[in-house]
Amino acid sequence: MKKPRRMNLLVLTENAEHFDLCKAAFTQAGHHLSAVKPEKTITAPINDADAVVTAYENVRTAMRAFHDQDAYISIQSGRLKTNTLTRIYAVAIGYREPGLPVNAMSVHITPEQDGEKEITSALKRLLLMPHDVPTIDELANQPSYF
User: Fold this and answer.
1) Domain span at residue 99?
2) Vertex 79, ends 78 and 83: CA angle to 5°?
3) Which of 62, 96, 142, 143 is packed most tightly, with the most Cβ within 10 A?
4) Is 2 inside any structural domain?
5) Backbone angles phi, psi at 62, to 5 degrees
6) Distance CA 80, CA 59 (A)
7) Per-run averaged pLDDT (10 residues), the chain, 146 residues
8) Domain of residue 49, CATH code
9) Would you say residue 79 lies in a domain?
10) Is 82 inside any structural domain?
């Protein structure tokens, strides 16, 4: 049986329950969990420019602090669709080194959802991503990627 490759995963979420779900799904998928770090991030209405900038700065700081991660997952919750913030997360994830391939996933969970199915599904997709994933520059031309 092939030994699962060791991965470091950075989780960006404000919700401790979502963090725990993420941790459980990651280890259950048969992968070794080298490092999982919850990070406080700010979500805000997409028309609030100051909040969007703050969210970008927070995520960029997290990327600097955990630049050696293999994969990233951003989990946002609430009724509002945060497409602008999702793009901010995507750009910030690629910040660690422009042009570097990125394994990243962004999940939006509405109040009607418990989050478990969405998080588990996102992690499965994240772990199945090929090694030759698009660079952040290529992602800019593929807005439907996230």
Assistant:
1) 7-145
2) 85
3) 62
4) no
5) -60, -40
6) 19
7) 55 72 69 52 50 61 61 63 53 48 63 73 66 50 47
8) 3.40.50
9) yes
10) yes
Confirm whether 25 is domain-assigned: yes
Count: domains in the chain: 1
pLDDT at 131: 46
Q: Enter the tokens of residue 12.
A: 């960006």
Q: Would you list the DSSP string of 111-146? A: TTS-SHHHHHHHHHHHHH--TTPPBHHHHHT-GGG-
Q: What distances in angstroms separate CA 96 from CA 62, 69, 105, 122, 126, one per listed residue?
A: 10, 10, 16, 22, 19
Q: Which long-range contacts (CB under 8 A, 24 or more apart) does 95-98 make?
A: 95/60, 95/63, 95/64, 95/136, 96/63, 96/64, 96/67, 98/135, 98/136, 98/137
